[in-house]
Amino acid sequence: MDPAHNICMPGDVLIVEDDPMISLYFEDTILGFGARTVRTAANVARALDLIAAHAPDFALLDVGLVRGETTFAIAERLDALGVPYVFVTGYGAEIRLPPSLADKPRLTKPCSIDALQAALRQGHSAQPQ
């Protein structure tokens, strides 16, 4: 891969997604964009463990996980650490986020490759270098 291609990409991306096929799609696509590493979690506890071990440069958060879990606690932790993220949801604009998270970026599943790439670039460029 051309080194200039991944200059605007985060190096380490965390994906929190409970559907293994969607998670694998995001992982393969993001690695194809030039990210060095992609870590995945299917639940809140695992995601918080991964963040505690090493904060990512960027995260994709599926809003609703199995058994009624939401990724709001993960978003709050990432906010505290200054890590950019985007919510990814199949519920579209109808999804209700807590007021403290209502202005955060969202992608609707399925999202285009261009929209995903733009979200990662925008999040990475907003992060202090």
From TrEMBL:
<dbReference type="InterPro" id="IPR001789">
    <property type="entry name" value="Sig_transdc_resp-reg_receiver"/>
</dbReference>
<feature type="domain" description="Response regulatory">
    <location>
        <begin position="12"/>
        <end position="124"/>
    </location>
</feature>
<protein>
    <recommendedName>
        <fullName>Response regulatory domain-containing protein</fullName>
    </recommendedName>
</protein>
<dbReference type="InterPro" id="IPR011006">
    <property type="entry name" value="CheY-like_superfamily"/>
</dbReference>
<dbReference type="Pfam" id="PF00072">
    <property type="entry name" value="Response_reg"/>
</dbReference>
<feature type="modified residue" description="4-aspartylphosphate">
    <location>
        <position position="62"/>
    </location>
</feature>
<dbReference type="GO" id="GO:0000160">
    <property type="term" value="P:phosphorelay signal transduction system"/>
</dbReference>
<keyword id="KW-0597">Phosphoprotein</keyword>
